[in-house]
Design a protein that fits this description.
Blueprint (H helix, E strand, L loop, with lengths): L2 E5 L6 E5 L7 H14 L1 E4 L6 H11 L20 E3 L10 H4 L18 E8 L7 E5 H6 L3 H7 L3 E4 L1 H9 L4 H10 L3 E4 L1 E3 L5 E3 L5 E4 L4 H15 L5 E4 L6 E5 L3 E5 L8 E7 L7 E2 L2 H7 L4
Parallel strand pairs: 2-3
Antiparallel strand pairs: 1-2, 3-13, 4-15, 5-13, 5-15, 6-12, 6-14, 7-8, 7-11, 8-16, 9-10
Length: about 300
């Protein structure tokens, strides 16, 4: 075999050993597809891909999607490659990047099928911070007590960009809020997603702003507890980047966040694989209003 996968932890993570010359081989692609479902996150240590090879790898795994064209840094040099950086020359509005310091799922506030997977390559690292943490939301669901599963299985959650960046600005200006609303939709997503293959996962992240049918504080308290549960060490893999690393993760069953950094020289290149399943829909305005009520 030209590819091997070394498990990292029982619940999450795999290290892929393959030559760049074999990255696009059918054996590699089929192995990645299979292991991504089992391991959630796959790391290709210091494989040093170009944008062209990263895009070709992305395209081999599925249809390419770009949901960040309105965000500074998207298509900076290569079409469909989003350059993640705090460099003010490339990113005049860092809110979107700073929001990644908090747990999230890519594309969950876009009214389209949820992206299947994210591919990220390290081009330049920060002097400190910058590791990426991944939490397995399949495992988080599977390990919940049965009584709690029954209590939450049919709940619906409101997700929005404003909630995702609220920790960045606290109380954003009306002008900022208008920009956030223009970037994405307010979505209702199932708290427990039953995928087409029958597997179930939680859908969580800082963008989760309340639970339909619950007063705001009660819903947010439940979401906070579940996020803490999902982020316990057994379900989390922390990747400490080296330049040239390539990481792909199952965006439909893994939430992630970056350890904060301040270095404007840090640069990561992201590409995205489209999904076919759309678990949620645009939120009902009445439901959104209710989650901001106290009781």
């Amino acid at each position: 075999m030209s590819i091997t996968v070394e498990p990292v932890k029982p619940q999450i993570g795999g290290i892929v050993h393959v030559s760049p010359d074999h990255l696009l081989d059918e054996e590699t692609i089929e192995t990645v597809r299979s292991e991504l479902e089992k391991r959630g996150v796959l790391v290709f240590p210091q494989i040093n891909v170009s944008d062209e090879l990263q895009l070709a790898f992305t395209d081999k795994l599925g249809d390419r999607v770009n949901f960040t064209r309105q965000v500074p840094g998207s298509d900076a040099e290569t079409a469909d490659v989003y350059k993640i950086t705090l460099d003010r020359k490339l990113n005049s509005e860092p809110d979107y990047v700073l929001g990644t310091f908090f747990w999230h799922i890519d594309g969950i506030t876009i009214d389209q099928p949820l992206p299947k997977a994210t591919v990220l390559s390290a081009r330049k690292l920060s002097a400190s911070g910058g590791a990426t943490e991944f939490a397995n939301l399949y495992a988080a669901w599977e390990k919940l007590p049965e009584e709690e599963k029954r209590e939450i299985e049919d709940l619906t959650v409101v997700h929005c960009v404003e909630a995702a960046v609220r920790p960045v600005h606290g109380h954003p200006s009306e002008e900022r809020r208008a920009r956030y609303k223009a970037m994405a939709a307010v979505m209702e997503q199932p708290l427990v997603w039953t995928h087409e293959d029958g597997r179930k996962s939680l859908l969580l992240g800082t963008h989760a702003d309340g639970i339909v049918g619950m007063p705001g504080p009660h819903g947010r308290a439940l979401l906070a507890r579940l996020q803490q549960w999902a982020a316990q060490p057994d379900f989390v893999y922390t990747h400490k980047w080296k330049e040239g690393d390539l990481v792909i993760w199952n965006n439909q069953g893994v939430m992630h966040r970056v350890v904060p950094y301040t270095d404007e020289g840090r640069v990561m290149h992201r590409t995205t694989i489209a999904g076919k399943e759309k678990p949620g829909h645009k939120a009902d305005e009445a439901n959104v209003e209710r989650i901001y009520q106290i009781a």
